[in-house]
Write a structure and sequence with these properties.
Blueprint (H helix, E strand, L loop, with lengths): L19 E11 L3 E4 H5 L6 H8 L3 E4 L6 H16 L6 E5 L11 H7 L6 E5 L5 H14 L5 E8 L10 H4 L5 E11 L10 E4 L7 E2 L22 E2 L1 H23 L8 E4 L4 H11 L10 H4 L6 H12 L7 E8 L3 E8 L11
Parallel strand pairs: 4-5, 4-6, 11-12
Antiparallel strand pairs: 1-7, 2-3, 6-7, 8-13, 9-10, 12-13
Helix pairs in contact: 3-4, 7-8
The structure holds oxa(dethia)-CoA.
The site of oxa(dethia)-CoA has 21 residues, from helix 2, helix 6, helix 7 and strand 12.
Length: 354
């Protein structure tokens, strides 16, 4: 991660305008074909379409087919982002995911190889729903340090493989999907330049979002202490409170680091966790509701894919236009959070199936 791109009150940096900067050069996304409606879920879970809509804003989500994995979605989204950037060449690939194809090795090298990019640097980032912002931060660091000139950043998650189908508190929220951007080296006063990135975490709250089994603490599923430890779990209402507080704080810090006032923000592209969370954050920031970009009704919470998928769909349907000043913010397990700013560049969307 580039220390100069992290906004820290304890360090002094050269003005952002003088630094080599990562610039967004392409965008793409992909959704698996199967659509699961709230009514579909209500056939097997003790829930209703009305509860899901009013408590989350979600109407449907996409689900990967049996055997369709994170790398499959990532390759589709990344191929479209490369096409949008006008070149197939990158020096590094960073994949943000909570659902790697395997615990070992990382999924990024396979994605790179399948894109015809074997040989480049490729690694995974695990910051749950904040993964895309963390991966963006790592990519900005590689570019600022001169290690890479073009970097592919992908968020891809297949939560349907880790959800407990009997847990109504999580099964209704998450959807599968992928989104990607291509970054190139450039100047910070160009459209598309990624502004100062403000990341954060607090591991004291790691238990609020977790898959307890399958890692080094409870290695085999036979060692799991509780039934269901192999599945993703979330303490919904506590996470809700943290999400509102942290996304509000980190958004303010990213705006301050970029020198933006509320009036500068044309679009707020936040991780699509829950429409009530997004409403609360907008309210606390004092931003009008028409600044909010949202696709949660149609895709649900797609974790690391959420922000690039949202951006790509909004470019495709005209809600996001060149010159718009966009505030990006995310929050997720860890706990982790992060935010940044970008003035949207003139690039083509290549959104997959909607
Ligand atoms: O993406 C990373 C971070 N994730 C988030 O930010 C998600 C944060 N949390 C949330 O979005 C919300 O907390 C949830 C959508 C998960 C839950 O909504 P809530 O308004 O916080 O509900 P709750 O957990 O306080 O539960 C309220 C009631 C409970 O029933 P009782 O105890 O009041 O009788 C739940 O059992 O709603 C019940 N409930 C449901 N009822 C119908 C929970 N899930 C469901 C469901 N259908 N799917």
């Amino acid at each position: 991660m580039d220390p100069q791109q992290m906004a820290s009150p304890r360090t002094t940096h050269p003005p952002h305008s003088q630094r080599r900067c990562a610039v967004i050069a392409g965008i793409g996304s992909w959704l698996p074909l199967e659509v699961v409606t709230n009514d579909d879920l209500a056939r097997t879970l003790d829930t209703t379409d009305e509860w899901i809509r009013t408590r989350t804003g979600i109407e449907q989500r996409h689900r990967a087919a049996d055997g369709e994995s994170t790398s499959d979605l990532a390759v589709q989204a990344a191929g479209r982002a490369l096409e949008s950037s006008g070149s197939d060449e990158v020096d590094a690939l960073i994949l943000a995911t909570t659902t790697p194809d395997f615990l070992c090795p990382a999924t990024a090298p396979e994605v790179a190889a399948r894109l015809g990019l074997a040989g480049i640097a490729a690694f995974d980032v695990q910051a749950v729903c904040t993964g895309f912002i963390y991966a963006l931060s790592a990519a900005c660091g590689l570019i600022a340090a001169g290690t890479a000139d073009r970097v592919l950043v992908i968020g891809s998650d297949v939560y349907s493989t880790i959800l407990n189908p009997r847990d109504r508190a999580t099964a209704v929220i998450f959807g599968d999907g992928a989104g990607a951007v291509v970054l190139r080296g450039g100047r910070s006063d160009e459209a598309g330049a990624v502004g100062p990135i403000v990341p954060g975490s607090d591991g004291n709250f790691r238990h609020l979002i977790a898959i307890p089994g399958g890692g080094a603490r409870q290695r085999s599923l036979q060692m799991c202490r509780q039934p269901g430890d192999e599945y993703f779990s979330m303490s919904g209402s506590e996470v809700f409170r943290h999400a509102v507080q942290r996304m509000t704080e980190v958004s303010r810090r990213a705006m301050a680091a970029a020198g933006w006032e509320n009036a500068d923000v044309d679009r707020f592209a936040a991780h699509q966790a829950n429409s009530r969370i997004l409403d609360s954050v907008l309210d606390q920031l004092g931003l009008p509701s028409d600044r909010r970009l949202s696709n949660i009704a149609h895709v649900g919470n797609t974790s690391a894919a959420s922000i690039p998928l949202l951006l790509d769909q909004c470019v495709a349907d005209g809600r996001l236009k060149p010159g718009h000043k966009v505030l990006l913010a995310a929050f997720g397990g860890g706990l982790t959070w992060g935010a940044t700013t970008v003035t949207w560049p003139d690039i083509a969307a290549t959104a997959g199936p909607q």
